[in-house]
Amino acid sequence: MTTTLNLLSPVQVGSYTLPNRIVMAPLTRCRAGAGNRPVPMNATYYAQRASAGLIISEATQVSQQGQGYPNTPGIHSPEQVDGWRLVTDAVHEKNGRIFLQLWHVGRISERSFQPSGALPIAPSAIAAAGYETPRSLKLEEISGVVEDYRQGAANALAAGFDGVEIHSANGYLLDQFLRDGTNRRTDAYGGSMENRTRLLLEVTEAVIDVWGANRVGVRLSPAGTFNSMSDSDPRALFTHVAGVLDRVNLAYLHLVEPRADEEDADPNLAELTVRYFRSIYKGIIISAGGYDPELGHAAIADGDTDLVAFGRLFISNPDLPARIELNAPLNPYDRSTFEGGDARGYIDYPTLDLQPV
Questions:
Q1: Taking the model in full, what pTM does it have?
Q2: Residues 172, 189, 291, 349: which is the catalytic one?
């Protein structure tokens, strides 16, 4: 008899057997402490959500140059590594698994975040809406960026994470290199799709050298237009990228679904769903983008994806897997507390009372 899979079914992801297919999505909450170091409150927040099959941490800059928002954590100083150790220890005490998301924002930054007040960097000197025009990264500087990711991966290992995810989505540096709307280079990192994919592949290989491929994931947003992103042929581009990554034997590919309710949604990109990429990428896929439990169960049962990442619902429901299992009501979330602030809207959402009467 065939058993229908759902969000609560166990799954093998890389070297780990996960108890369920419910992923805590990477969520920028802007609550790191001084020096962009995680603090005990951050450890409490993640530990509360350790019943997820897998936690993917908030985006974490691999260098000071990679920062673009206030109070986002880094993974490039000993103090930051120590802060993240508080988090991983707390999650592991609750038998959870947590991957660190490695991040460089590229042009989505300001001089105030940059070393010595320098201009942010990008593949080409093209500004995103609302941001200063960045400077084009010199060819001889690119190896340094790859090294920042490698060192960030090594620091994540030292901090006790179970793996890492490379953030190549949402209009940040690696995504900027992939798309011809932001990459007008004429050297080995621009022009053809192969050249534009080169940096992502070099970063992936560097991170795999630290972790092994079975503890590394990559996140893509093929239909994303956030942060002024565009490409002349996104279907061809991301078909190519997914095919290249399919040969690397990653732990997973994390895909952001087209979202019809997003202000920047492009109806011409609606075909770039996880179902489309299923025929190209043969490994484990995590899908993210506006799921509720019912949609998540259906996507897994239909074979469209292997795991589903929940963001906003995990913010307001730290015990989301238990609520899904019991079909219990979900707490509403408070958007005003998503980014920045204190414990309110961060570690004070109620959990179900699962104790016997």
A1: 0.97
A2: 172
